[in-house]
Amino acid sequence: MTSALRRRSVPRIFGTLCVAVALPFLAGCSLKQDMALQPKNRPLAEDELLVSKESNSFPLPLTQELLERGENRYKIFCTPCHGLQGDGNGMVAMRGMKHPPSYHEDRLRQVPNGYLYDVIGNGFGAMLGYSAQIAPRDRWAIVAYVRALQLSRNARLADLPADVREKVLHPPAGKNNEGTPETPGGKKE
Ligand code: HEC
Description:
By secondary structure, the chain is mainly alpha-helical. It has a domain of 91 residues: Cytochrome c-like domain (Cytochrome Bc1 Complex, Chain D, domain 2, Orthogonal Bundle). It contains 9 helices and no strands. Helix 3 crosses helix 8 and helix 7 crosses helix 8. The longest helix has 36 residues. The protein is globular, with a radius of gyration of 28 Å. It starts with a helix and ends in a 20-residue tail after the last helix. The site of heme C has 20 residues, from helix 4, helix 7 and helix 8.
């Protein structure tokens, strides 16, 4: 008998409690809170991230964090077709789909940043766009990462920081330096 009573009254008490707790919020606070929490700058920020296809500008600060985010998103969204290094040798492409071009071809090295951003959002030819899946900031992060991939094959010596340039020109002797200027002398192990 007690349990039947409890079963009947618990929902009612619970309901009353809910109303009591919710009412003041609905009446007074919620309006104020909504205004305080409004994401004021979101629409503006998205506009600022829109860059024309012809523009080579990059609308975000280029940081290590952004590049890492780009690498992470690239590996999820682009690698299946474009491959880890951007050659176009992803698993999907190897299974008969249209082969994407390599990012390392001259034409794609020279397209502006805005063009890459547009391809990611709107697609290109046989490739679908990812505007629904990838937010604008992440699209830019991916653009940065694609640029890094391109640079990894095409950096000029002069672009490197001095200490890195020094290592490329004069690799530390000793370890596994086959094919470096140290080997022609003929020292074999
Ligand atoms: C399902 C496979 C697939 C995925 C995933 C994919 N692409 Fe593509 N992509 C293609 C194909 C195929 C082409 C070539 C389309 C054509 O020429 O018709 C292409 C072309 C491109 C091009 C070259 C456009 C040009 O001017 O030739 C770029 C840049 C590009 N993709 C970037 C990306 C990036 C960045 C991602 C990840 C956000 C991505 N793609 C995801 C298949 C894919």
